[in-house]
Each structure stands twice: as C-alpha cells, then as structure tokens.
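Reviewer comment 2.1 asked that we show a complete input and output for one of the modelled complexes. We chose the pyridoxal-5'-phosphate case, as it is the one discussed in the main text.
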Amino acid sequence: MRSYKAKAVTPIRLPDREGRIEALDAAGHNVFNLDSDAVYVDLLTDSGTGTMSDEQWAALMRGDEAYAGSSSFARLQSAVSDVMGFEHVIPTHQGRGAENVVYGSLLEEGDVVLNNTHFDTTRAHVANQGAEAVDCPVEGAWDREATGEFLGNFDVAQGREIADEVGAERIPVVVTTITNNSAAGQPVSLANIRETAELADELDAWFVVDACRFAENAHFVKEREPGQGDRALADIAREQLSYADAITMSGKKDALVNIGGFAAIRDDDLFERAKQRAILYEGFPTYGGLAGRDIEAMAVGLREAVDPPYVAERVEQVATLGELLQEAGIPIVTPTGGHAVYVDAGELLDHIPTERFPGQRLVCELYREGAVRGVELGSFAFPGADRPDYVRLAVPRRTYWREHLEHVAETAAAVREQREEYVGLEIVEEPPMKELRHFSARLEPVEE
Ligand SMILES: *Cc1c(COP(=O)(O)O)cnc(C)c1O
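Response of the prediction step:
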C-alpha cells in the first residue's frame, strides 16, 4: 500500500517515434546528451531525482540563510544525531564533497583503502590523495545469477589477506558501502558490518561507512537477517552506523533531497581537521556549500528516510520493475538490489561483441522504442575493465507509478522482439579523459 499521494505533478510526454529518432541522432547515440523533455520515463539515476514531501517543501521556507550558526544547521545536526547517532556533522554540497573532506583528512600518498566496492567518486577521491583503492566484494557480487541474501557484503577474509600482503600500516582506512551501489545495489548484513569494523580495529584503521543508502540497507537487514525481523527499522538503521568512526552521505539518495550531503565524524580531532578542509573546499562548516533551505530539506528528508512503509514500498517498487522485466523475457541481475535493476545487455544482444557496446545499443533502443532513459555501466562506461555489459535502470524515489514501470517493461519487450536487427556502435568523438567518455562521447552504428 502506498503511504503517500501526489500534491504537485510534473507533466511528461512520450515524443512520437520520429521525434525520438531525431533526438537520439542529435544526441550522438548518447542519452546524456538528450534534453530531459524528450524523455518519458527517466531511469538514468536515483541521485537527486526523487520527489520531496510537502514537509520538505515547507522546510525550504524555514531555511536560515545565515553564513554562520544557521538554525537550519542545528536542525540537521539534530536529525543526524537522532537518525544516525553522530554528534559532529559537516554539511557538503553533495556526497563527493563529504568524501573529499573525509578522505582528504585521512589519506596520504601510498596508502591503501579497502572497501566492499568503491563507488566511482570514492575511488576517485582515494586516487586523488595518491592512495590505492582496493575492492573486497564477496564472490558472486557481479554474477547475474548468484544467489544470496547479502551479496553486497565485504569479504573480510580477503581484506585480511590484502593487509598481510601490503602491511597493516599502509591501510589507514577501511570502508563499507551500504547498500553496495557498484555491486548492483546489493545489501550488506549487520553481522558483516560488525566484522568489517573488527577488521578495521585489528588494522588500527579508521572505519568509514558510505551511508548513501543506509535506510534501504536497513530494510533488507530487517527482511533478511536472522533475528532482525522484529526490530524497528530506525534501530537497525542506527546500529549499522554505530560501528563507524565516520560516515559520508549523499543527501541525493536516502535523504530524499535534490542536492546536498554531509560527513559525520565521531573523533573530536578528526572532526577539527575535516572542518578545516571543509572551509577550503565546501564553505563555512555550518553551511558547507549549501543554502540553508537545502540543509533544512535534508534534515526533514533524513527523518522520512527511515519511515518503514516508505522504505518498504521503495525497495518493492524496484523489485516490481525487476519482475515485470523478467516476465518480458529480459535477463536481469537477481536478486534485485535496493535502487535499480541491472539488465544484462551482453546476453540480450549477444550477437553484438563487447567492443561494439551492446549495453549502449540497448540504452539507445530503450529510448528509441519508448523514450525510456537508462545508463550503460559496461564496456562503454568502464573502458578496459573486465566487467559484464550491464544497463542500469535506476528508480527515483517517490516519483513514478506502476504504470510507468509497466511502460518500461513493455518497451524492453518490444526491444527484445527486434533484437536481431540491432548492430553495434562505435565512438566517433570522445573527450580526452577516457574515464569520463560515457558522459559526452558521440557514437554511430556500425554495420559489419
Ligand atoms: C552517489 C554516491 C556517492 C557520491 O555522492 P554524490 O552526491 O553523487 O556526490 C558516493 N557513494 C555512493 C555509494 C553513491 O551512490
């Protein structure tokens, strides 16, 4: 049962076929170049694309725009304390700002950071300090048909082996990302968070939790982990973070805002150091690159994030999209994670070789067929990485209804019908930094 109703709506239109073909050509077969007006169901990302509540919109008006000591900051502090159990908070413009503040204060050249799987921006911030990001996912994390309740877990044994190899003194930070975004949004168990914290302790390292989807993760823990079913979601959400020395948070995910983020830190000295870095990169530590109203909306969103009916519907909506796609014969990663469904384009379009970007071809055809926008996370987005050609369909929070998801599944079914006709793509224009090519490169179909 939905626990909210609509008060404001945004009109969307399905452009006609000719319009879609034109738009795709003009975009150079890259959906990042599309105008959002030309998109009907936008599943590009769940980051900052959700719908705020009436309470959040009301909170915007309460925003205190004082440069220092804003009362909106005090309300954020109180929300972070109540919901996440941290007293020291540094607001930042978004999640990567929090990563800069935390990792910039903790890392030095030559250090090694262990993480269940580094999210792209986390990896970049570790690298930016001259440190090395090492992933410790459990077996099956990237396997489309793996079964398991907590495939997002940190492989603690592997972490220990790496520590033996490189030396504990080189590992000042151990991180766990909940849910594990880069492993198809799979959840991490409470027991695993505890064990990872113990590993950090053994290594005398700081333990950081990337908490972007802490509420969705808590929902999975309640549903799946033995002994957790009777606990309040909010308790589980807090316990997950109670083992951490610091957390980094993107408000654009579970805090239900369109922009914002923060770091929260337990240690007084680290907090002082991080604040100095925040002043340099984000702004005075009571506003951190945000307007007071943005902070205010984030404080309200954080409390709404752990409302059990909301989170249950949110995660179930993603699962529903997965089921509809499976019924349409589309190969997806199962079990579905918390924020997105991953389609195996390499399998669906198995006549297109990896170097001709089957994932990007699928993204294009989902747009051409039904103005649905997803994103390729395979050979196009990660050149040279040995990973499957997946396409991610991320579901924005509180935004689409079942009818939209049915449209996505019908679109995918129509694409599947015509799959033999599709040819691969080649890049005809790309930016100098290969790692960023999927945001702006232009492609063309190749017949061969
Ligand atoms: C989105 C995200 C970030 C970065 O947050 P931004 O707000 O996009 O800067 C970091 N970690 C994870 C797991 C994320 O999903």
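The first helix runs from residue 17 to 26. We note this here for comparison with the apo prediction described in Section 3.2.
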